[in-house]
Write a structure and sequence with these properties.
This protein is α/β, with parallel strands linked by helices. It has 14 helices and eleven strands. The radius of gyration is 19 Å and the shape is globular. This is Probable nitronate monooxygenase.
Length: about 350
């Protein structure tokens, strides 16, 4: 199943396992996907530089195939008095979970430059970026050393900027996708164009491979986006129930038990728009009188609550990121999923060619 993406990136199947920050993506998942012929992707967001370095070492020791590391492009939050007001407003939630701590600090750049140096020094072959485009000096360093770069777009305008910056491929993130929206251009509102509409428009607008993301859950979805002109698919929610997944038991249960209508796009929990399952905590924050601070401030303020909730099994306070196709997530090994998706897509194309 050769495409412009598989040829350029040296993989067998046009399937990228999405880098899901916060725990779902594990080194074992990345290894399994890359060993099966897809492109496994470590999530560099939220982890410390030391942890990222350790995870890269684990992956390198267990596969000779290409893999990627994803980095969050630094944010420029609007620091206002909203942070203290929000912290005070969260007091009730903290008390309900037995959390007694002072207001946490936040790191606006997620140790970005340290992580860039780690990725360079450990010779990671492919680097992807979320939340925008790094500055030219960073991109130049990667290009100088022959690294392949991937950006994420939610609109044609963003895709054109990514191509102009020197990216080697673009993820077209449709509105169905779980997790944070990659929107970085415009007035701050989420760009919510569906995958089936967004993908061909970006394909027509750029001259580099496009990976479709959002609602692609199996070989049917893979075949569909390839037919739209994509050179592959980036799939995240499809791997949340994989054997190697680090997703919590509560999230994995929600994937099966909750309706396809129960995901929402909100900035209540982190300050950036993100798709996940609706919770009472989200509803309380959205209906509250205190303005929601920008990312990563809100992420830092709610993080103690969400972590404590996960530890105690209080799903109503957790961040349960998932895409709209969550009910199709299958419980198999990540490598087995890659092979299954590729075989299903190949069978579909074979039927149409008869």
């Amino acid at each position: 199943m050769n495409t412009a993406f598989t040829d350029r990136f040296g993989i067998r199947y046009p399937i990228v396992q999405a880098p899901m920050a916060g725990g779902p993506t594990t080194p074992e998942m990345v290894i399994a996907v890359s060993e099966a012929g897809g492109l496994g992707s470590l999530a560099g967001g939220y982890v410390t530089p030391d942890v990222l370095s350790q995870q890269i070492s684990v992956v390198r020791a267990n596969t000779d195939n290409p893999f990627a590391v994803n980095l969050f492009v630094p944010a420029n939050p609007n620091v206002t008095a909203d942070a203290q007001a929000m912290w005070d407003a969260l007091q009730g939630a903290r008390e309900a979970l037995g959390i007694f701590t002072s207001m946490p600090a936040w790191n606006a750049d997620d140790h970005f430059l340290e992580k860039v140096q780690i990725v360079l020094s450990q010779r990671v072959p492919i680097v992807s970026f979320t939340f925008g485009i790094p500055d030219a000096a960073v991109l130049h360093r990667f290009k100088e050393e022959g690294r392949l770069l991937v950006g994420s777009a939610t609109s044609v305008a963003e895709a054109r900027q990514l191509e102009a910056s020197g990216m080697d491929a673009i993820v077209a993130q449709g509105s169905e996708a779980g997790g944070h929206r990659g929107t970085f251009f415009g007035d701050g509102r989420p760009t919510l164009i569906g995958t089936i509409a967004l993908t061909p428009q970006i394909v027509d607008a750029v001259n580099i491979p496009v990976l479709a993301a959002g609602g692609v859950m199996d070989g049917r979805g893979l075949a569909a986006v390839l037919a739209l002109g994509a050179a592959g698919a980036q799939m995240g929610t499809a791997f949340l129930r994989a054997k190697e997944s680090g997703a919590s038991a509560l999230l994995q249960r929600a994937l099966v038990e909750r309706e396809e209508t129960e995901t929402v796009v909100t900035r209540a929990l982190t300050g950036k728009y993100v798709r996940g399952f609706h919770t009472t905590f989200i509803e309380q924050l959205e209906k509250g009188e205190v303005p929601i601070p920008d990312y990563p401030i809100q992420h830092a303020l709610t993080s103690p609550i969400r972590k404590a909730a996960a530890a105690s099994g209080e799903a109503s306070f957790m961040s349960l990121w998932a895409g709209q196709g969550h009910r199709m997530a299958a419980s198999l090994g990540a490598g087995d999923l890659v092979v299954r998706f590729a075989q299903e897509a190949a069978e579909i194309f074979a039927r149409f060619s008869e």
